[in-house]
Amino acid sequence: MKLIKIAIVFSFCFILNLQSESILIKAAKNEMNRSMQELGKLPNAPYYIAYSVSDIKKVALTSSFGKIESSNSDLSRIFDIDLRVGTYQFDNTHIIRGNPFDFSGGGGFTELPMEDNETAIRNIIWQTTDRQYKSAIERLEKAQTNQKVKVDEEDKSADMSKEKPVIYTGSKPKLNYDKSKIEDMLRRLSARFAKENWLYDGSVNFNAEEIEKTFINTEGSELVYGEAYVRMFVYAKTKSDDGMSLPLYKSYFSYSVDGLPKEEQIAKDIDELIDLLKKLRNAPLMTTFTGPAILSGEASGVFFHEIFGHRVEGHREKDPNSSQTFKQSIDKKIFPEFISVTFDPTIKVLKNREISGFYEYDDEGVKGQKVNTVENGIFKNFLMSRSPIDKFNVSNGHGRKQAGYKAVSRQSNLVVISSF
């Protein structure tokens, strides 16, 4: 009976939030206008402010060896701000060279009341804006001083690109599922691990998340849209006779509960996981090897993501502490001519499989765009946020962020194409 009550209250709160969404936007707009008017009277007035609010509904369930270990539900409303003083060319986000302790990733996030009370929301937004403004002024002064005492910068591009404002209202997807049925499925699946007494861990996790995003800025952008997804993780661990820890896992992703694999398929995957762990547990220790390696499946995807993908994230090319691997590679051959690489956030399904790198707009209010980074082996483009680099002055919709941090360029769906 207790679980039923929680479910009813949880659903009601989220529906209430959606119905009174305009109060949130009204409060944010009024406070943004007030802040620009009042702070505009000061010597170092903000030239740009963006407010982001994420209404998040989470459900997390975990079952281990046939028993439910945890069952948690959570509602939160996260407020984040990007406030800039100076100019588009030079502002408080400018890199301070020679300072490895410059922790300028962001000013942290603030939680807003779930209840749509305009006065309460505006009070918190005002306090956060005031705090961020003072921090921005302090950092701008440090950046200006740093520029004066250092040699001229190699990359003289602006600190922020100018983009057209966007007005967009998208869909608000909602996940439909029976929590008790999900828990029963998790019990049955994790119970398959209980048959093996040599396993130290055998668990199945279910995570569902619905997010409604609101984004406004002083350039005139206003976006309201939703995201929803489900993830499941199967995890098992044992040890070999010499004490080596042997963990294995398998993950599943979908934009709906119905999009996940059937229980029978997950059960089959668990049995295969157990069989592989049994073989690893009894396998001889691998000896040192020097030579070629052939990567396939998920391993090859991770390789491209880590070795190539992060190195084409544009903001890294401006940071002297970053590798800048491809800074001098534009229009040069870096791969065999039969290989092309794209990053495409507009793809939601590829070969009948839902993929998690899909999004409509990035976290700076710029529409997600397909980017051809390599064409027939020739390097062509970087993934760009609103932080320009030399010869790449605008965003291509890859500005992503965690709450409390500034947006930087990040990968979307990485697609490697071979014409061989």
What key attributes describe this structure?
single chain, 420 residues, alpha+beta, Double Stranded RNA Binding Domain, 3 domains, 7-stranded mixed sheet, 4-stranded antiparallel sheet, globular, disordered N terminus
What does this entry look like structurally?
- With about 425 residues, the protein is an alpha+beta fold.
- It folds into three domains: about 1-170, no CATH class; about 180-215 and about 225-280, 2-Layer Sandwich (Double Stranded RNA Binding Domain); about 295-420, no CATH class.
- Helices cover about 25% and strands about 25% of the residues.
- It has six helices and 15 strands.
- Strands 1, 2, 3, 4, 5, 6 and 7 form a seven-stranded mixed β-sheet that branches. Strands 12-11-8-15 form a four-stranded antiparallel β-sheet, with helices on one face.
- Helix 2 packs across helix 3.
- The longest helix is centred in the first third of the chain and has 32 residues, at about 120-150.
- The chain is globular, with a radius of gyration of 25 Å.
- It starts with a helix and ends with a strand.
- Residues about 1-20 have low confidence and may be disordered.
- Beta-strand content: 25-35%
Number of domains: 3
> Sheet with the most strands?
7 strands, mixed
Termini separation: 61 Å
Shape: globular
Strand element count: 15
Mean pLDDT: 91
Helix content: 25-40%
Topology as a string of helices (H) and strands (E):
HHEEEHEHEEEHHEEEEEEEE
Radius of gyration: 25 Å
Number of helical stretches of at least 4 residues: 6
Q: Low-confidence stretches at least 5 residues in length (pLDDT < 50)?
A: 1-21
Structural class: alpha+beta
